[in-house]
Amino acid sequence: MTQTESYDLQTQRMVAAQQNNGKIFGRFDPIHIGLAVISIIFLILSIVFIILFATKHDSSSGFLATGFSDSNASDVSNDLRGLLKNKYTVNSFAADVQDKTVSAVFSLRDSVSADDVQKVLAGSKLVSQVETTYGDKATAVCRRQQTFASTVSAAPTNPPTTVTTAAPPVVARYCKSNPITRDIVLVVDMDDLEKNNHTEKMASLTVIRDSLVKGITFPQANIFVKAVINNTVTDISKKFADNADQFKNDFNILLNTATFYNALSFKFADVLAQSIANFKTGRQYVPGAIFAITDKRISSAVESNPKDIGIYVGVTGVRDSYLKSYADARAADEVISKESWTELANSDPFATLICSFFKLPTTQMSSQLEYLRTERDAVIDTPKCEVLDMIIAFDTSESLSSLIVPQYVDFAKKLVAQYKYGNDNTRVGIITFSSDVVEVRKLTDGNTLDAVNAAIDTVHYTGGLTNVTKAQLTAKNLFDTESNANRNKVLFILTDGVPTVDTYTDEVAAGDKLKSISVISFFVGYSSYSDEVKTELGKVSEPKYIFGNMTFLPEITAQILTTYPCPVPKCVTAYYAIEISEATDDYVVQNLQDILNIATQASTMQTGTESYQIVTYNDAQNTQFNPKGDASFASFKAFVQGLIADPKRIAAMRRGITRLDLAIDDVTAEMKAQATKNIRFSSDILFFGQANDAVLKPDVDTNAKFQLLKTAADALKAQTGGLIYVVDDSRPANNFGKDLWTAVTLNNNIIQYSQNNAAVLKTNTDYYDTWKKLSCNLPALGTCYDTPLDVAVLVDLQNKDYDFMNYITKLLNQFSTQDDTHFSMFAYGAFKTSVISGLSVHSSQDISNFAVTYEDWRNGTYFITTTTPAPTTTNKPANFWNNNLYTVDQTMMSGVFDTLGTQFGCGHYSDDTDRIFAPNLFIFASDNFGTYDASVWTDFQAQLRNRYGCWDCAGTPTFLFISRNAAGPPDTLALGQTIHLTTADLDIDASDDTSTQSSINQFNNLLNTICVTALPTCTTYTSTCKVA
To answer: Which segments within 532-668 are labelled E, that is strand?
Structure first.
């Protein structure tokens, strides 16, 4: 080794003592660089096995990202995490920087492609050369063979006299010499089992110690030693050992134990609970593992598995029959057992355990969402939606014990906590049995979780003989008297399964009686059932309902759901609205018959659980919804047929005035009420009637009447996702005025009244197709692809509102941006209007970063152009958010349009910027419209007149206003459509239990409004610009 080089023991690689041409890796050749990078990546990758499973989601994607940065780990972590959170739901994240090499591991909600994540992270300001791979692929990369030199090297007594020096000897270590980064708690059971040879055990532990010293790579791995002595968990180490000598000294203290005790079982639950506490003294962002050495069976069920918080658990020791209990109890991720201590020591089990990690889930690539009305898959069946009558029978006899019964109590409380209670949902009854049976809680009283838990808490060990048959017959009697045929019935018998009063023959006969009333009976043991007991209990019930211990709660829950799926909710409704005003009875009857024909066809396309409503409307406060109560197709058909057959009922509904706008408001209110009862509610509506301007009330001019209808219809569109259809019975315009149905819905959704409305509706609209797709699942978020648009998005926020900014970002991300929709993002209000992202960039990455960049602009850090560090949270700029309430005035709005003029219109036409044949749309998004006084809006209108017109048709924009509250531009100015968003409207995460059909329909309707933006109508489309 030359004098200008040194051997770094901690990282185990050669580094130049002097910089070499400013390169990160100095004088390393490419092979050493590759090995070093792999080492660092692997060090960080190991985190993923903790983090991804600590916060595991049923549909998650794991990733590894690597790159280079001169910044510290905290800044890099904040930078990358911010980019990810701007576009995805981040389940977990950890990052580190070593020698300027960045490694980050993270999991994202739902199936996400590595290519998309790569594009997001490529926008990092701090990390260069970002490379992203799936977590499972990263595992393969990081487990390639890599040899490291020994961690122990003696310094030479004399300086080297030659130019070269031999490298330290290579020592083979665990995991093919890959240094595994882990904090390990090693727990050794020092209590003896009489059957085993104590001397052999101690000798084997000595061999295991030496194997660990030789095999583990310190300091990447740190070890804390604990012992179980006289059934008590004791700390041997004072702190985690980060070198071989310290670890060996700690283990020797354990081997020098002077007093030994006999024990029959191993209190593994105590071991785990006390070991978890040790990790608080370990290293941050380093995966943890608990390894135990024992020769005894597990003493009791493990209540809190460390794996649930990301700690890997391994057990090794002697006797297969004993150590199998850890696997059966699901208390360990890996169990390695041998039949003798000598065999265990010779096999070196830690060569396997040290190198074992959680396995990453395979990543499913998500398919492209179909535009607008595709059904979204959702798991409807969960315990909370089941309608169950459940009786839990506790065995409290002498064959159990005062230790086992409390375990059953805890199990039962976990079981019942999964359900929703009430007479329309789940009810639970409680009985106990030994020689006799005691009814603790009736089914009819067990309709709240608090009541059920209170009853379970009273269960205790009593002793006595075991009479399972009597418990079965008592349960049957309770089901007979307290339940009914419409409710699913489940009996849990928590017992060791061995009768002492009755016989298995008696139990089989009682089981047959339970089966006769459709009761399924589960038997749950406390440790495991013998094969003989399993066979007998399988005859009493069914083999699939027999579980040997309480760790099988998820399987038990799943089995109940399989047997008794949740009832399909009635959340799809078809509305048929018919005007009953001056039309003759024959005419109304014809319309009703058409509605019945259309609904009959529609009923064949759904599941039979949908609802139907006939809506009759005319004057204000006379909109009626029928049938009441039962809204099945059969009830709907009967009601409509009753109207057809009884002219007097039609006459009673008739009025001479029609307020279509108020009728639409009534329908919207009814749909909102239904959506409140069921967040999965979805619907469509078909109108039969006229909308002539000269007939409809109120008596206002055509434009005002049109606007009244449009405003009412916008709210209805938000409820239905735009599924509004019309059979148009409007009269000729020359006598009755303009047909205003186009204010209510799209032309494509309107057919003219004919003699065969059902057939025309099918041929000329998508009514039946969209109806068939309605379901209790939330709709997918829409997309807008292959649509050329040039869009400006301008944001003005007085208050921090991450939900609103994420909503806007999500909206923009639903467009294909590279060659189709181009976005330019602006910020205005608090400061001079700024272009956050230019139109020529049209980058999806800029869109994803919009929320983050806007906040930088809003708090002032965006304007820091020197190398001075940005203000921290303890030293905020004076104009930070709430410290700077401002007013948008006339001057500000003029500046907004000046800045828009730098991106759009004359002087900016090209295929890469503002395109002549792409409609221009300006979206103003704000929570601040309420502070804009009349002069602001007057100036806004003046700017439009002065800047845009047919002399520059291609540059003339359409305007859309997205308001976070009830404020907006004055309707009288007719500047453009205004969408008002409430907090509930912003919840568009279809994976949770709070999003509604309405919120997602509103989102899709807004997206569709943008997507169908039309070119302005002018006499010519040229790039000839007005000359001043």
So the answer is: 546-547, 572-579, 611-617, 624-626
pLDDT tier, 171 (very low <50, low <70, confident <90, very high otherwise): low
pLDDT at 13 over 50: no
Is 169 a domain residue?
no
CA 789 to each of CA 125, 840, 916, 921: distance values in angstroms, whole numbers, following the listed order: 29, 13, 10, 7
Structure tokens at 773: 């797709």
Residue 731 lies in a domain: yes
Which amino acid would we find at residue 403? L
Residues 6+ apart with CB under 8 A from 738: 692, 693, 702
Q: Virtual CA dihedral for 379, 383, 387, 392, nearest 10 degrees?
A: 160
Flag whether pLDDT at 45 surpasses 60: no
Judgement on whether residues 639 and 671 belong to the same structural domain of the protein? yes
Report, as an integer, the average pLDDT of 934-942. Answer: 89
Number of domains in the chain: 5
pLDDT, tens digit (0-9, with 9 covering 90-100), for 244-293 = 999 999 999 989 988 888 888 888 888 888 888 888 787 765 678 899 99
Residue at 274 is within a domain:
yes
pLDDT at 849 over 90: no
- Other beta carbons within 10 angstroms of residue 138's beta carbon come to 25
Looking at 518, 536, 561, which one is the last position of a domain? 561
Q: Are residues 205 and 328 in the same domain?
A: yes
Q: What is the mean pLDDT of residues 934-955?
A: 81
Element (H, E) at 130: strand 128-134
Q: Is 708 helix (H, G, I), strand (E, B) or coil?
A: helix
Residue 766: count other Cβ atoms within 10 Å of its Cβ.
16
Return the DSSP state at 871. Answer: P
Return the structure tokens found at 7: 């051997």
The domain of 125 spans 61-142
Instruction: Please count the other Cβ atoms lying within 10 Å of the Cβ belonging to residue 915.
Output: 18
* 445: helix, strand or coil: helix
| CATH code for the domain of 838 | 3.40.50.410
- Check residue 240 and report its DSSP letter: -
**End-to-end Cα, the chain, rounded Å:** 78
Beta strands in 661-738 (DSSP E): 682-689, 724-728
The reported pTM is: 0.41
R_g over Cα of the chain: 36
Report, as an integer, the average pLDDT of 106-116: 78
Q: What is the pLDDT of residues 557-569, one digit of tens each?
A: 989 988 887 765 5
CB atoms within 10 A of CB 740: 22
Rounded to 5 degrees, what angle do the CA atoms 934, 937, 942 make? 125
Which residue in 835, 879, 842 sits closest to 860, CA to CA? 879
Residues 6+ apart with CB under 8 A from 931: 798, 887, 888
Q: What's the DSSP call for residue 262?
A: B
